[in-house]
Amino acid sequence: MAKTEPLPAAAGDTRLTGIPASPGAAVGPVARMAPPPSLPDQRPTVVDAGEEAARARQALEQVADLLDGQAADLQGDAAAVLSAQALMARDPELARRAAERTEAGDPAAWAVHAACGAYQELLQAAGGYLAERAADLADIRDRATAVLLDLPMPGLPDPGVPHVLVADDLAPADTVQLDVERVLAIVTRYGGPTSHTVILARSLGIPAVVGCTGAAGLRDATPVAVDGDAGTVEVEPDEGLAERMRERAERRRALLAGSTGPGRTADDVPVALLLNVGEGDPGKAGAHDSEGVGLLRTEFLFLERSDPPTVEEQTASYTALFQAFAGRTVTVRTLDAGSDKPLAFAQTGHEDNPALGVRGFRTSRVHPDLITDQLTAIAAACRETSAKVRVMAPMVSTPDEAAEFVSLAREAGLDQVGVMIEVPGAALLADRLLPRVDFVSIGTNDLAQYTMATDRTLGALPDLLDPWQPALLQLVGTVGGAGERSGRPVGVCGEAAADPLLALVLVGLGATSLSMSAPALPAVRHALALHTHSDCRRLADLAVAASSAEQAREAVRSAAHPEAVDR
Ligand SMILES: C=C(OP(=O)(O)O)C(=O)O
Ligand SMILES: [Mg+2]
């Protein structure tokens, strides 16, 4: 195949590597996200500062209307993300800061840039979830600049053919609009294994490679073959490789379409396959072929509000979900406030390190009513339906905290009570903690952040957050062993459970259920059916004995059943 343009990233090497983020293979031409509009060198002279301030305000308003319009065509999480961004564009503080700049002599576009920049710095300094919102603000800035300078609106490219989307990173407003018919795969230069892009790509079933530094050199229309299982991008693949990748994608589609029913290893050991659920239509969630819900993230009821929802409001919402899962397990996680999920009414004072602060179950030390009201609502909804309801608290660090949550939940009338294991301290004392609860569920996203001392909202250190890190797996094994000794079920509900090969390792380490987004279920179910429980143990031993995440992944890829490894 003839080269169309020089490819700096491919010079002397046609294979780029990154982090495998969402499984599957795809071949297609690159379509890059357009660079954001930049301010021209020539800066017009301001004649009327008031008029410039009005133009800036109108541009922000226009961006907000545009985002609201897009939200109206979407549902669930996607609509909520865009509406929240529209609210940000309408924030009077943003318009006030822009007006301050026009008073100081800035034309409207320059004023919007400065106002958004100053606001972004504030968010970044706050850290955690707020720092992540800085990307939303950059998107608002770029859109408002495009409006003011009469330039094309930045956003997803539309080359008119199915393509591989290549970007530095994707803003939430972009990811929620991805067209699964058009976007064959995603390759990003930044972003870690638990980033927004990854969670969304997995939930849409789009293959993805993130943290791929070489992506910077990929040019529009260059053919690439993306391997979301191996984390590689082959630039200008030869026809033989392209054909093998297409066949692989086709095989995978057929195979997954035929995978149904409960999770079982080849020797019939049950491994319940459950769903991670957040905001959205309970009926749609219930219609998936799953054995229930392994993680109900209840934060969606509490976010973007000035007061907590009432017990009645919460009861109605839980009842609707429990009814959609009648007869099946539903694991409700109590409010995980703080750090990356801050709430206006659950403030706990300034924290320099919010990820290490008053968050998760710790919030109940400061706001005990939040948790008791929530448990009351869950118990009331539980009485209305036949779902097998379980509750668990996030960010529990000690056996005593676990026992405290158990007694609160029992007082509310709930009988299946567990905790999430997301803190190394809780994992290390699993033998003492597990006998005090009915079950545990390991949150590998947070457990990775605390084990590897790496902020999960940071795109810069994706290799350290890789859930194949042997240190993280060793801790999972500590909890799994305690589960076997105490006879308590051990679930995994972090993103790790959605990777079919890693799922085998987790089962080998003692996991008895796995919870993930719906599109990930068939591949995990299929991988399990190809391996006995002792195969899983052997794979787990290989992964834990490795000295890096990469080696662990490679060791398991070479030892697993060939049909489970998409090659
Ligand atoms: C499942 C988890 O919880 P969240 O991602 O909501 O913090 C986790 O930490 O792995
Ligand atoms: Mg967590």
Automatic annotation (TrEMBL):
Mg(2+) binds at E422, D446. Residues 1-45 are annotated as: Disordered. Residues 263-529 form the PEP-utilising enzyme C-terminal domain. Keywords: Cytoplasm, Kinase, Magnesium, Metal-binding, Phosphotransferase system, Pyruvate, Sugar transport, Transferase, Transport. One of its GO terms (molecular function) is phosphoenolpyruvate-protein phosphotransferase activity. Residues 20-31 have a biased composition (Low complexity). It catalyses: L-histidyl-[protein] + phosphoenolpyruvate = N(pros)-phospho-L-histidyl-[protein] + pyruvate. NCBIfam families: PTS_I_fam. This is Phosphoenolpyruvate-protein phosphotransferase. It comes from Nocardiopsis alborubida. The lineage of its organism: Bacteria, Bacillati, Actinomycetota, Actinomycetes, Streptosporangiales. The gene is ptsP.
